[in-house]
Design brief:
Number of helices: 2
Number of strands: 4
CATH architecture: 2-Layer Sandwich
Shape: elongated
CATH topology: Translation Initiation Factor IF3
Number of domains: 1
Helix content: 25-40%
CATH superfamily: Hypothetical protein apc22750. Chain B
Distance between the termini: 15 Å
Largest sheet: 4 strands, mixed
Strand content: 35-45%
Amino acid sequence: MRVECERVIYWHRELPPLDAEAIGEHVLEAVSERTSSALAHRDEIWNRCYENLMAHATERLIEEIRRLGGDCAHVIGESVDTRHDAATGETWLHGRFTYALLRRAATAAAMAETRGG
C-alpha cells in the first residue's frame, strides 16, 4: 500500500510532510527546448526557456520518484546555465537539480508488512 504525498515535488523552502523520511539524495539534469535567439539580454526568451526547463525537470522528477520507489521529493539545490551550439546558433538552458527522495512512514510500514517483517 502506497501513501501518496499531498504533492509530489517540494521546491527549496517548501516543507515536505513531517512523516516523510529521506531514503536517498539524487541529482537530475534537464534541458529546455532550443531556441535560435541569444538568451543573454532577452528576458522574455529566458523566461520562456526557464518555464520549459522547469516543465521538463518536473516531468523527469516525477518519473524518477516513481522509478526509485519514493513518494515525493524535496528539491534542495538548483543550478541553471545557458548552453550554446555555435554550429546551429541555438541556445538553451541546462538545469541540474539535487533532491532528497522521500518515502512516507506509512508507505515504509506497509512495505515492511508486505514482506512479512
